[in-house]
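Batch manifest, entry 17 of 40.
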Amino acid sequence: MKREGVPGFNIESLTFFETLPNELFDFVIPEGSKIVPALAERNSKLQDPNSGMLLGDMTEEQASKEITRRYWQAIIEGNWQTVAILRPTSTAEQWQNKYSCSNFEEIVEIKEPYQEYGVSIVPCKIRFEGNVTRTISASVLFRTIDGRQSCVIVNTWRRDWD
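Output type: structure tokens
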């Protein structure tokens, strides 16, 4: 990965496949803990039946690519309401404030999705003003609400390598 220089850590021993007791992973919420509502609110938005995109006859792979294409195209066109429907974790106004100065110009390529951590990851090449191209990945969550399969964009992140 073209890394150079002295590493910032030293490893003296490494143990693989160590048997750990099951109770190590038992978690009990400490008494007096405070539940932070923002995370619960965000997760409830991801389950809103009025958000996202219906799968219809598409496979999950096809739907991952299609919702990602619609999402980036809506950003390019400044269609903030569509952005908020496809990625319901924020409002149209919040997405506009975040992305309106980013100078997205064109979807260059939507790569094949892959599964990681229970979501579909869809890497995309996006061209910005000044002919700058970046790879930005989108996480797509699939859900079944009221017997209908749909998906939403959960988050995106930029990669500076390929």
